[in-house]
Specification:
single chain, 250 residues, alpha/beta, Rossmann fold, 6-stranded mixed sheet, two-stranded antiparallel ribbon, 10 helices, 8 strands
């Protein structure tokens, strides 16, 4: 039994902050080295983006056959202008996505009661104030997740998020984890305002959610280092050691 690995890492940040790049880096580190350096064992990701995108595709199929879209619109209005792009009909769907993450995690525990003996779960999502922010999202996380999770927040400014979103956007791969992007105005509408500072301001080491205290650290990724593997590795060494120490004092 491995007692020196994280059970759950929640990975948060604005779109294009560097979350996917961190996961990509961790995948390339051999598991024994990853445990030694980062306290992350064999890991599995739970990301709400594929769930979100599949709902858009489902609605496209409905629309193709002349039926009403169930969950999303294929256009949005911002600052008085109507533009092409998917948005959810109801804000609640962002919380529905968190419930889907809860469900996926619970299935892992049902399939293997010794799951966390060797495995770390990485849960990834972004939230802007426009759809409830991080405070609301965390309130929908299950007790099973909240009692075991630690958070790594990747901090970039809105301007940096916009720059990197433009850089990674591949219109031919809108469903790609590493290459998907948002239209500029849609990104502004949904993610320019963030409640992270307010959400985390009560405590420099713990996020307070319901009756739980979740250890957290902030990764300042501006100027960008997630595109520089050597620097990224050193930074993750530092941050995950810090996070582990906070966890052990809990």
């Amino acid at each position: 039994m491995l007692h020196h690995i994280f059970d759950i890492i929640i990975l948060n940040g604005r779109p294009a902050a560097g979350k996917s790049e961190v996961i990509d880096y961790l995948k390339k580190v051999p598991v024994n080295e990853r445990i030694e350096r980062f306290h992350i064992g064999e890991f599995e990701e739970i990301d709400d983006f594929p769930i979100l995108w599949e709902r858009f595709e489902d609605d496209d199929i409905y629309q193709k056959y002349g039926k009403e879209r169930l969950i999303s619109h294929d256009h949005f209005t911002y600052e008085g202008k109507t533009m092409k792009g998917y948005v959810f009909k109801e804000q609640f769907f962002w919380n529905f996505l968190i419930e889907k993450l809860n469900l996926l995690y619970s299935k892992k525990l049902k399939e293997d009661k010794y799951y966390h003996n060797t495995k770390t779960t990485i849960i990834e999502f972004a939230r802007g104030s426009e759809h409830g922010g991080f405070k609301e999202a965390y309130n929908y996380l299950s007790d099973d997740i909240l009692k075991k999770a630690c958070t790594l927040y990747i901090k970039v400014s809105w301007e940096e998020s916009l720059r990197k979103n433009r850089r990674r956007f591949n219109p031919d791969k809108p469903d790609s984890i590493l290459e998907h992007g948002l239209e500029d105005k849609k990104l502004e509408m949904m993610y320019k305002a963030s409640d992270w500072e307010e959400f985390s301001s009560k405590d420099p080491h713990y996020l307070h959610v319901k009756n739980y205290k979740l250890p957290y650290v902030v990764f300042h990724n501006e100027p960008e280092i997630t595109d520089k593997p050597d620097l990224l590795g050193k930074k993750l060494d530092e941050l995950f050691t810090q996070l582990w120490n906070i966890k052990m004092k809990k």
